[in-house]
């Protein structure tokens, strides 16, 4: 389904409303910090949702791009004396360029072969971040300088809540527009059948490459925001578990749904925070929740709920 | 020459374990098209249960048997409680279910056992065997021999028994298998049980060399998956070849290039192989039907 102008406004309106309501209902600094993390993860999940939901391609190494964005933001100021914001921009470009370079050969692969290739890509990025200790600080991580804009220090959970929230809103707007564009239609077509799509004149390889680069850029943007917000990054940001979390966000929320990616990001960001109450049982409960969600709501939360609502409505 | 033999044996030993994990992947994939990322946890269970059973006073053979039984029970539960209810879900959803299962099993292992590293005594002593000047641990021979025995046993089972033929029939065409009276649910459960047993035996054999902890499963699952894909998924011969090749690559990369990047070399080679041969080394070309 291509989102019409009405759906677009509805999705953006819903997001904007949540963005306004959260600080009113949960004004504590802790809650705002968690919410900012949700918006950051949602940006990365959005990009992956375009790749997985729209184009039907899987990436099990997407956190690698997040790591590139995060570490560029951290390393630029430290080693080259660059402005953090400029470094973040460079990181996003770098991630996009890497995606562009490896995209064509990787996206020729199908199904599980695509999964293992993207997995390998993510692991390689993670390995470099862990191993190049003199440059990256290794497994212990690295500090990120404070962001200053026009001589004003950007600090405080409230400010970062709005920076990340508005970025998410912009990212969602762009994603909705992409779905509605000719590239979006081409991607939906090749999702159903690549051969059929190429028969009607879709440049399949190019369309897949475009969405892969966009997904990488979104992930790197999220990584950069995370570095600036958290002011500390470790190689975990690019790790395999991070990649799996991102994929799970997209699938739990509902593949192919923009709102779903945000809902999935919210769930997988808030759940571990809540699970710290379980102490030692944290991982067991997390694993169990993932299984239960996937078994009982396999279309994802947003499409699942939407189906419930339309079923109740008399035809 | 000495170094070559040394690296060769180290590579074959780790490669044999990767091959066993890859074989487990292949078995479950053939029967159900599920890529089971919890495969590495069976290896972990094999090692950890044996360690703790021996601490409780059981002799090694009994402890090992118990470990295999625990892994098989886990495999059957995984199939019954997670895979079967998710039947018909997409590939990605099923992958996430098995990853959820692997997080759950690891989380439980961390509570039931502990977070420490554990070793097992070598089965037949630590005195290295001299071969062409290189020193080889007797336990390496146990791993290689055990893996070879499992591969041979599995081949005989698949080729010579009626049950094995039922597994192959289900893999070839599930609907047709059901039509000739094969209970494919039993076949699936069997695939999970046998995969779990293979993984557990691998874990028991290799723990005296590599140590074990609740968390060893993740990396093994990734390597096993990579090995299975390197060989071409769904092909048991490919799984064994892929596993051994991956072990050798890592060993020679660690010896001749850099031990920090040995994991990277393996994945780099996989990327390059897939760029050239998108179906893996021994995989069949998939044809898309329109």
Radius of gyration of chain A: 19 Å
Share of helical residues of chain B: over 70%
**Strands of chain B, total number:** 2
Q: Give the strand order, joined by hyphens, for the main sheet of chain A.
A: 1-4
Q: What summary fits the major beta sheet of chain B?
A: 2 strands, antiparallel
Unreliable spans of chain B: none
Ranges of chain A where pLDDT stays below 50 over 5 or more residues in a row are none
What's the helix-strand series of chain A? Answer: HHHHHHEEEHHHHEHHHH
In the CATH scheme, the class of chain B would be: Mainly Alpha
Structural class of chain B: mainly alpha
What is the number of independent domains of chain A?
1
Mean pLDDT of chain A: 87
Q: Which range best describes the helical content of chain A: under 10%, 10-25%, 25-40%, 40-55%, 55-70% or over 70%?
A: over 70%
Q: What average pLDDT do the residues of chain B reach?
A: 88
Per CATH, what is the topology of chain B? ABC transporter involved in vitamin B12 uptake, BtuC
Q: Overview of this structure, please?
A:
The complex is a heterodimer of chains A (315) and B (290). Chain A is mostly helical and 315 residues long. Chain A has one domain. Chain A is built from 14 helices and four strands. Chain A has helices spanning 5-25, 29-54, 63-80, 84-107, 111-131, 133-136, 157-180, 182-192, 194-199, 204-230, 240-253, 258-275, 282-296, 301-312; strands spanning 142-143, 148-149, 152-153, 232-233. Chain A has a two-stranded antiparallel sheet with strand order 1-4. In chain A, a hairpin with a 2-residue loop joins strand 2 and strand 3 (152-153). The radius of gyration of chain A is 19 Å and the shape is globular. Chain B has 290 residues and is mainly α. Chain B has one domain (2-276): ABC transporter involved in vitamin B12 uptake, BtuC. Chain B has eleven helices and two strands, in the order H-H-H-H-E-E-H-H-H-H-H-H-H. Chain B has helices at 2-32, 39-55, 60-83, 91-112, 138-160, 162-172, 174-179, 184-210, 217-231, 236-257, 262-276; strands at 129-131, 134-136. Chain B has a two-stranded antiparallel ribbon. In chain B, strand 1 and strand 2 form a beta hairpin. In chain B, helix 1 (2-32) crosses helix 6 (162-172) and helix 2 runs antiparallel to helix 3. The chains are: A mainly alpha (315), B mainly alpha (290). At the A-B interface, helix 4, helix 5, helix 9, helix 11 and helix 13 of A face helix 4, helix 9 and helix 11 of B.
């Amino acid at each position: 389904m291509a989102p019409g102008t009405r759906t677009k406004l509805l999705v953006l309106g819903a997001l904007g409303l949540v963005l306004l309501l959260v600080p009113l209902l949960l004004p504590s600094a802790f809650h705002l910090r968690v919410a900012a993390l949700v918006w950051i993860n949602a940006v990365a999940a959005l990009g992956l949702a375009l790749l997985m939901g729209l184009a039907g391609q899987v990436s099990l190494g997407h956190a690698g791009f997040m790591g590139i964005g995060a570490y560029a933001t951290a390393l630029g100021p430290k080693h080259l004396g660059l402005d953090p914001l400029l470094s973040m921009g460079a990181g996003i470009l770098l991630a996009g360029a890497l995606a562009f370079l490896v995209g064509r050969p990787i996206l020729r692969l199908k199904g599980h072969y695509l999964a293992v290739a993207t997995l390998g890509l993510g692991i390689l990025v993670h390995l470099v971040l862990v191993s190049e200790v003199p440059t990256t600080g290794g497994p212990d991580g690295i500090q990120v300088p404070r962001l200053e804009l026009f001589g004003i220090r950007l600090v405080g959970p409230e400010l970062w809540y709005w920076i990340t929230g508005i970025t998410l809103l912009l990212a969602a707007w762009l994603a909705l527009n992409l779905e509605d564009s000719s590239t979006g239609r081409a991607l939906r077509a090749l999702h159903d059948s690549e051969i059929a799509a190429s028969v009607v004149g879709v440049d399949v390889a190019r369309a897949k490459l475009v969405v892969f680069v966009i997904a990488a850029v979104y992930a790197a943007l999220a990584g950069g925001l995370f570095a600036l917000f958290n002011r500390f990054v470790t190689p975990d940001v690019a790790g395999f578990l991070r990649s799996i979390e991102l994929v799970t966000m997209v699938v739990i929320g509902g593949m192919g749904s923009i709102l779903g990616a945000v809902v999935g990001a919210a769930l997988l960001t808030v759940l571990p925070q809540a699970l710290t109450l379980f102490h030692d049982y944290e991982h067991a409960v997390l694993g169990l929740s993932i299984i239960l969600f996937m078994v009982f709501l396999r279309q994802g939360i947003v499409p699942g709920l939407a189906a419930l609502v339309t079923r109740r409505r008399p035809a | 020459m000495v170094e070559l033999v040394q690296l060769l044996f180290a590579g074959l030993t780790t490669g044999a374990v990767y091959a066993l994990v890859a074989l487990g992947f292949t078995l479950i994939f053939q029967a159900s098209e599920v890529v089971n990322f919890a495969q590495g946890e069976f290896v972990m269970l094999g090692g950890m249960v044996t360690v703790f059973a021996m601490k409780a006073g059981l002799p090694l053979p009994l402890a090992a048997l118990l470990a295999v039984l625990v892994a098989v029970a886990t495999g059957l539960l995984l199939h019954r409680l997670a895979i079967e209810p998710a039947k018909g879900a997409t590939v990605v959803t099923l992958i996430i279910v098995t990853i959820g299962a692997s997080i759950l099993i690891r989380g439980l292992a961390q509570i039931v056992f502990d977070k420490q590293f554990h070793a097992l005594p070598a089965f037949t002593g630590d005195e290295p065997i001299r071969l062409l000047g290189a020193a080889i641990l007797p336990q390496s021979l146990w791993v290689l021999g055990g893996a070879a025995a499992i591969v041979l046993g599995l081949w005989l089972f698949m080729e010579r028994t009626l049950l094995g033929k039922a597994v192959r029939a289900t893999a070839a065409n599930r609907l047709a298998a059901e039509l000739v009276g094969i209970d494919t649910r039993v076949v699936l459960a069997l695939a999970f049980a046998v995969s779990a047993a293979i993984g557990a035996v691998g874990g028991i054999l290799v723990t005296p060399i590599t140590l074990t902890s609740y968390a060893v499963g993740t990396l093994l699952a990734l390597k096993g998956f990579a090995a299975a894909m390197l060989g071409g998924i769904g092909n048991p011969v490919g799984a064994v070849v892929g596993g051994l090749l991956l072990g050798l690559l890592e060993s020679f990369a660690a010896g001749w290039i850099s031990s920090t990047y040995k994991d990277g070399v393996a994945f780099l080679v996989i990327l390059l192989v897939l760029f050239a041969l998108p179906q893996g080394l021994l995989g069949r070309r998939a044809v898309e039907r329109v």
